[in-house]
Specification:
Elements: E1 4-11, E2 16-23, E3 31-34, E4 43-48, E5 54-58, E6 64-67, E7 74-82
Antiparallel strand pairs: 1-2, 2-7, 3-6, 4-5, 4-7
């Protein structure tokens, strides 16, 4: 109960997907580099479905940097590949 975990859903034909990310209760890190599958070296548009904010980010071998301010928090994100 001390890690970051989650799920990645990807639809290759639509070039979109979703991330559900959890910061577990006893985790002390408010940011984390999350590795993503199928997206290495792609620019993606990430939309936080909780607050509507969005931004572009390039996915590299380290993944993308995510932040959750409080333990036991979560993110629900949509992403779209920008070609």
């Amino acid at each position: 109960n001390e890690s970051w975990t989650g799920f990645q859903i990807y639809h290759p034909e639509k070039k979109t997907g979703y991330l559900i990310i959890f910061r577990e209760l006893h985790n002390n890190e408010n940011s984390y580099n999350m590795k993503l599958k199928f997206l290495d070296n792609k620019v993606i548009r990430i939309t936080d479905l909780g607050n509507g904010n969005s931004h572009n980010e390039r996915v590299n071998e380290a993944g993308i940097k995510l932040s959750i301010e409080n333990p036991a928090g979560y993110l629900f994100l949509k992403y779209e590949i920008n070609d």
